[in-house]
Amino acid sequence: MPLGSNVLDDGEPRRFVVGITGASGAIYAQRLLMAFASTPHHVDVVATTIGAEIFRSETGRTLERTLEELSVKGGSFRTWDHKDFYAPFASGTQVYDGMAVVPCSSGAMGRMAAGTSSDLLVRAADVFLKENRRLVLLLRESPLSEIHLNNMLLLRRAGAVIMPASPGFYSHPKDLVELADSMVQRVLDHLQVEARVFRRWREGSERARTPHDE
Q1: Residues 153-163 as b or e (16 or more Cβ within 10 Å = b)
Q2: Are 17 and 43 a contacting pair, CB within 8 Å?
Q3: Which of these ranges, 26-40, 138-152, 194-208, has the smallest mean pLDDT?
Q4: At a CB cut-off of 8 Å and minimum separation 6, what does 60 contact?
Q5: pLDDT tens-digit profile of 141-190?
Q6: How far are the Cα atoms of 68, 71, 117, 168 from residue 34, in angstroms, in the given order?
Q7: Domains in the chain, please, with CATH?
Q8: Full-model pTM
Q9: What is the spatial distance between Cα 212 and Cα 73, in angstroms, rounded to a whole number?
């Protein structure tokens, strides 16, 4: 069935930030952006240089082209250079509803844990933590060293949701897209965005899809 037939009415438009770092797993970012395009919300997108390169390498298209196509289909997006500290979400005075870093590299996670604000993406995460706003980190790293685990604990104690990219298999996913969507659904849930892109535990076997799958 077309993706989006199970997307719920989410009410008034809200504002979110999606960060993309230089970890493998661009499909998670791609599917999350597609899900947001089916909602009324505005999304500011910031990718590191390597994050944008990996997105192009793994998806076969640039991030800019992807967002242009999703905008034509109704999505509301704006991209920001990762060195542009004039972006509104670099300041706590601008109100946003949530941020997800998808995928999140262990290096970016370490910089967030240290509070370095070394680029716009890390600065935005720092802002969301200090303002007690939702921050979801979809970590793509394995195995984990003691340094990684300590950084995860620091960020969790500061209020971040640490979500390792470890999709489940109980729903019998048919392909990589379904595996990715099962994690994207969890990210959306923690951002409190009522977009349905994948069935939940003990739901029927029929999969929810976004309009952009057709």
Answers
A1: ebbeebebbbb
A2: yes
A3: 194-208
A4: none
A5: 999 999 999 999 999 999 999 999 999 888 888 899 999 998 999 999 99
A6: 11, 10, 28, 21
A7: 15-213 (3.40.50.1950)
A8: 0.88
A9: 8
